[in-house]
Design a protein that fits this description.
single chain, alpha+beta, 22% helix, five-stranded mixed sheet, S16 Ribosomal Protein, Chain: A
Length: 81
């Protein structure tokens, strides 16, 4: 089972927010997740909230790969990959 760090869309139309999740790469984005690692919303300040940095680093050490968008968001948050 290969894991990916993905964004999972939630919220109402035109007011979306995203959860940063660890999930099996073969599942759809709306499917079952292994862990919720934070939340991202373009409508709030700060945009990234509830970030679990230690847990994110643990998943990286276990071999999880981030999507391109998640990689950009984490680099902006100051997390080295």
């Amino acid at each position: 089972m290969a894991l990916k760090l993905k964004l999972q869309r939630k919220g109402a139309p035109h007011r979306a927010f995203y959860r940063l999740v660890a999930q099996d790469e073969s599942r759809a984005s709306s499917g079952k997740v292994v862990a919720i690692l934070g939340q991202y919303s373009q409508f709030t300040s700060p945009r990234l909230t509830g970030l679990k940095q230690e847990e994110i680093m643990t998943w990286f050490k276990k071999g999880a790969k981030p999507t391109n968008t998640v990689k950009k968001i984490l680099l902006q948050a100051g997390i080295k990959l």
